[in-house]
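Minutes, methods subgroup
Present: GH (chair), OT, SY

1. OT presented the first of two proteins processed in the latest run. Sequence and structure tokens recorded below as shown on screen.
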Amino acid sequence: MLTTRLQNSKILKFRTFAFGSIAALLLSLLITPTSANASIKYSSIASGFLHTCALSTDGDVYCWGNNEVGQLGQGNVGDPALLPVKVPGLGRVSQLTVGATHNCAISQGKAYCWGQNGNGKLGSGSDAQSNSPILVKDLDSVTQISANRLSTCAVTSSKNVYCWGDNFAGMLGTGDTKGSLVPVMVKGLTGIKAVSTAYNHACAMSDAATLFCWGDNANGQLGIQGATSSYTPALVPNLPKIKKVSLGAGHTCVITDSNRVMCWGYGEKGQVGHGENSPTLAPNLVAELASVKDVQSGRFHTCALTDKNEVFCWGAGDTGQLGTGKTTDFNRPTKVINLTRTNSLGSISSFSAHTCVIDQDGKYNCWGAGDSGQLGNGSRNSLSAPLVNSSGTTTTTTKPSSGVDLSVTIKCKKGSSVREVTGAAPKCPSGFTIVKEAKPKSVFYLDLKNGCYSYNFPVTAQAILSGPNYKTLYPASCTGRYHVQVIFSGKIKTASPSGLPTQAEASENCGQKYIAAMGQPAPRQIAPDATYLYWLFPDAGFEAKKYPSKLVCTLIKTDISYTYIQAQSKPLARN
């Protein structure tokens, strides 16, 4: 039983029977960013799983997006930040790296990390999470650092490599699979210039422009044929001299000394860029690209910046991370649209599904998955291409230039004059009357004027207990004191081993749907006559086969005269 006491001492009680799961209720989904400043200029940017961080030209770190495990560095956990917030306590930072759920930075030769730490990847000597930057133990004179999903590695001024965190696949390079809460030296490596980490493998580039890799090799990501793994660094054979290395979840890419891109490893989504969707066990040239300045590998996609400052991406495109204006995969490089004057390409975690760049004015532009606010444009919409004229901290329009369009268009009439107004919650100008409203098919709306609710496909809904009898509300109903509207029913991506979304994932996804439908965040407190957010997991029990949904998000509007509601999740008849 969840009981919420209102300011006027009235009590609302909610009882949910979600067949074994507990439905969270009425969470506020936004925090107010206090440090977002349009005048900030950024020198680099990096994307994590559900968050993003950038380094300013002043040496300050700013982060935004998900803050479930303290990855925003604000000293707490909580709701996402949709715009940049400054990470305090770091001093002047010279390099920033972003993992899936943690970040690290170099300041005056010392390494500091913060965020999730279940496997010791913060290097603090314990596995305790840190919501603020914490010093990495036993590590001095750090010149370069790379964080990823489960581990972190760094290069020191002595040109040795140290790694820490999880080691289930030998990615610490110590010759075994024993993890470490503090940095340990990688065996057999000297004269190293840079290191790059991924989910279960790592690679290091030497001063001699050779490449050494270690960890898992199930998909050929080490570039070493005939070996399933290597617990110590192994030289990648048949590779020209290189300038840069970047690792994805199961693939590896480099820039050669002739400025060409070569990739190998897992290729099911086309992320190795060879025109096929299959693994490549040895370095192979990405033929379409020449004169490349930078390459970055994400979970299942890869991007490159050319000497003409054009960005090309390839691989998985399901969240729009390729920037083509579509959500389809491409197994060859495809030019990102809407970009001009790009200066640098953001690094991408091997668990990331969004992409960012910095332009020549020091502003960032991000696209791809945005459901946690990780695009930093003030919304939780995903985008299949960069926003045109993005300011780096705010958007100039409520209607994305491409990607997920959740805006509403209305036609307003005054005499013979007709105007169209578009936005999240558009209103007619003074003296005009609305004559037509066009809403996206994927978004569902509550008719607050007539007290009705609506949905346009058969989904699991709610049975509402109204007084002594159950009253089921169907789309044509405008009676009853409680009105329920399903705004989403379907599967969502989850990191949960059970396959069932966590409460935090439900909060983020349903919160985005609420903003799309209502034009504002869900209310922070229950109040009479409010329209608030509620979700459940209908597939947690015997109804799973009949209603194969991972998550159902609903709006509930209460009559102002009622203060007591009991909600029982129960499938209604299909229409």
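2. SY then presented the second protein from the same run.
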Amino acid sequence: MKYLIKVKYTTGDSGGSHETTDYLEYEWDKLDYAEASLDRIKGHIDWYRANQYSFSRDEVVKPSYVDDSYDTSLWLFADDGSQFQYNVFWLGIFERPIEIGIELKTNFRSYSF
């Protein structure tokens, strides 16, 4: 089985916003590593929100798995236990996360036109 991390978020521009859902490009074979990565994403979102609205950014401790150079980049787990850097798409000027979760990848046939 393959596991995917799904992110529901708002995006848009100065003219308006809308909700959308996307998946991380990485697929996990091991649920434990997918869950550990999901926990890091949640922690990153919590930190980002606290940091964004803090009067003193020094008071908000950056998690060790957030990149030192970019606040929108973090380290997730691969299936072999190593870590890989991931640049998030759900945080930005117009992007705000709504929900994150793990789903099973289905291999049903489909066509789009």
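Chair's summary of item 2: The chain has a mean pLDDT of 89.
Next meeting: continue with the remaining queue.
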